[in-house]
Amino acid sequence: MEPTHNVTEFILLGLAVSPELEHMCFLLFLCFYISIILGNLLITVTVKGSQSLNSPMYFFLSYLSLVDICYSSVTAPKLISDFLVEKKTISFNSCMGQLFWFHFFGCTEIFLLTVMAYDRYVAICKPLHYMTIMTRSVCSFLVAVSWVGGFVHSIIQTLLTTHLPFCGPNEIDHYFCDVHPLLKLACTDTYIVGIIVVANTGMISLTCFVVLVISYIVILVSLRRRTSEGRLKALSTCASHITVVVIFFGPCIFIYLRPSAIFTEDKMIAVFYTIITPMLNPLIYTLRNEDVKNAMRKMWIRKVDLDNK
């Protein structure tokens, strides 16, 4: 039986800032979004255009930057444009589309971060076999698995939500369409669906985070046998990834590994993992990485030389 959808559009309550602050927020979040696009695009172009950044670590990093661009683009443009209008509406189909793409890119990023931790584990714990284990075909396969895993996760979330009846009210207490706020609006008992959502999203986040923690514990234990110089070099390559993992997984686990209750803090926490983290990733990976900075300098010098000819 087809679900009943008396609701043709939803009203987003947004970040609920005062009217005086909305224009300031518009400029602030527009700057954030431009930074996300330019920063991640710069990393992608640098990795693809530099022969020195041809290791698996940078192969994964280029895809992480691509996913960050797509991930933030699902929610940020709508949030930014809504600061300029009084009534923030989104059609039913657009809402479900936003839900799908948000979880697709978000889950793909989770899997990519986990794959990157595996790459660091092999590089540090099995350095002699690194290039034979992490071949280009294996790396491509792991990236493909991340995309497929994100799709499977997202299609489950979307199908569960679209098959719920929505007959009013239609106000979403959020700035984008996510599962928990939508479950609150469904005019049916959503307990079972809520459990599935927690099992799907929450457990993926928690399981991947546990795998990441275990991999880094193994890495740290293995480093005890290294010289202090080798230990520092290995830790420096992991530090950026650990930072990204902590600031991305922490909010995700808090939001999704619990029943579909809505807290007032949820929207600000969501800003952190939908906008702030994708904006910080390029800075984290470039400021702490001499190889990336050197590759960017070479590309800039090459561009200047071409322009002067």
TrEMBL record:
Assigned keywords, A-Z: Cell membrane, G-protein coupled receptor, Membrane, Olfaction, Receptor, Sensory transduction, Transducer, Transmembrane, Transmembrane helix
Topology in the lipid bilayer: Multi-pass membrane protein
Keyword NADP among UniProt keywords: no
Segments passing through the bilayer: 26-45, 57-80, 100-118, 138-156, 191-223, 235-257, 269-287
Record's subcellular location: Cell membrane; Membrane
GO cellular component terms given for this protein: plasma membrane
InterPro entries reported in the protein's UniProt record: GPCR_Rhodpsn (IPR000276), GPCR_Rhodpsn_7TM (IPR017452), Olfact_rcpt (IPR000725), Olfactory_Receptors (IPR050427)
Residue intervals of the G-protein coupled receptors family 1 profile domain: 39-285
An example Gene Ontology molecular-function term: olfactory receptor activity
The family this protein is said to belong to: Belongs to the G-protein coupled receptor 1 family.
Protein name per UniProt: Olfactory receptor
Species name: Alligator sinensis (Chinese alligator)
